[in-house]
Every structure is written in structure tokens, then in C-alpha cells.
Amino acid sequence: MQxxxxxxxxxxxxLAVVLLVLLCCNLPSLLFWPLCLKEDLFRPSNTSVLISxxxxxxxxxxxxxxALFVFEGRTDRMYMLDLRTSEKRDIxxxxxxxxxxxxxxxxxxxxxxxxxxxxxxxxRPHYILDLNDGQxxxxxxxxWLPRLEGFKxxxxxxxxxxxxxxxxxxxxxxALIALxxxxxxxxxRNVIFxxxxxxxxxxxxxxxxxxxxxxxMGKGYEIVDFSLQYSDVPSPTGRYIIRGDGxxxxxxxxxxxxxxxxxxxxxWYYDESGVVFRQPGYDLINFGPDFGGGYxxxxxxxxxxxxxxx
Length: 310
Prior knowledge:
20% of the residues lie in helices and 31% in strands. The protein is an alpha+beta fold.
């Protein structure tokens, strides 16, 4: 008994050390929830929370502002959030969607391919993904069709754009997508086209030649690049326009919101009452570049940044 009593202080010390180690190892997890909730609470006064910081969400908007694609990093759940009703709609789990998807509408997604020749190793076609049934429709790449003498692009292929129901331009990718009125029944009429096929050695601004081509045809188009690097993005009715440094009344230099939007813009709201704004997060512990950088990232929430009443 005396030996057991002598061992008790040692056992208590060992237990305390073990508990301390466990606490240190789990401290970031214990701190995560109060810190991410703090991000939801302490936000700009002209915002409301669409998706809590605690969900570690990745979001993509759609051109008409009707919905928002959401990937919850902590649960791996993907869905479309209806911005009118707040309803969450489950969508097909396509393996290319998260890393290669560009939303054209609440139902249609461009699954970006490899932009290389068909015979190239690892070539991946471009597709349109229908979120209603998970069906893929391959896009015909006009870049690789026969050329005129001198390797000039043959204008006869412009008929695909002229007869299309909807045309989309993604400036950063230098890509134009044209969908026929009955694209599900006749997928062979759905095409993708690169500005590189028109440049002929020049170095224009990304997407510039594609826009000019459609304007010369008198053909309307939708901008689906929300990066704000190479193009401004108009609101659903065209009343406003968003640039990297803020939101303006269209056709003027009159600012409505003056703040950096380049990295944080997630899409317009359908009624133009605001924009989807991705609040930046931060590293809980930052050891600096000499020690591997930050540690345990605390994400920011996805917000609705409200516009002033017109």
C-alpha cells in the first residue's frame, strides 16, 4: 500500500502531462467554432450572412443571380442555394464539377476541358453538364476544324454563333460557348471557340476579340467570368456594373460601393439589391515563411453585401 501511495503523485503528474498534450493538439479545433462564429457576428453593417464561416464554403454565382453553387468544405456537401427562396437543391456529383465547373445558369455548367489538340496526351473534352439529370453534352471545338489557306479561321463556322440561342464569353479562359436552341437533342451544334484562333499573332486583351466578333454580328452574349480581371460584370438588368475597385451605375463613373471587389465577388443578386461577397479569412497561427507559413485557417462567411437603395 505504501508503494501505491508513493506512485500516486507520479501517476497524477503523468495524467496531467497527457491531458496537456491532448489539449494542445486539439486547441485549434476547440478554438475554431467560437472564432468562426465571431466572423459571422462581427461583419460589415451593410451585410447579412448567406453561409456561415463555420461551413468553410466554396461558392460560385450564376450570371442571372438566381442561385449560388455551394460546396461545404466541412461536410463535402454540394448544392444550389436558391437566392429567392433560400431553398437548397441537391445536384449531381460530377467529378469535374468542383475543380473545372463554370456556371452558365442555375441548370447548366461548363466543364472545362484541356484546350489542347485532340491527339495530345491527357486530352479532356469540354462538356456542358445538365444539373437536372447529370447528363453531359460534349462541345464541338471549332479551333481544330479545317482552316483556310494561310491557316486563317474559316468564317463559315460563324453560323454556329449566329444560330445559337445563347452565347457565353469567359474572358480569363479566352473562350466562347454557343448553345443551340435544342442543344439537348442536337449536341453536335453546341460549340466552344478560343480567341487564340482569331489573334493571328497579335496579343489583344483576353476576350476582346470574341466580344468584338459578336458585336459585329449583332449577337448578344453573357459574361460568365466573375474574376473581374479582364471584364466588368453587369447586373442582371444592366443597371449596375461591377469592377475590381467597386460597383458603379452603368455607363457612368458614379460609384455605388467603393471597395476592393476583385478577390471577393461571388455573383450578383437576382433583384440587384446586393452582391454575393466572400469575406476573407485568416490563419489562426502564422509562423511566417521561414517556418512553413500559416497554421489552421479560419474561413470567413459568405455574405450578401447590400447596395444602397436607388
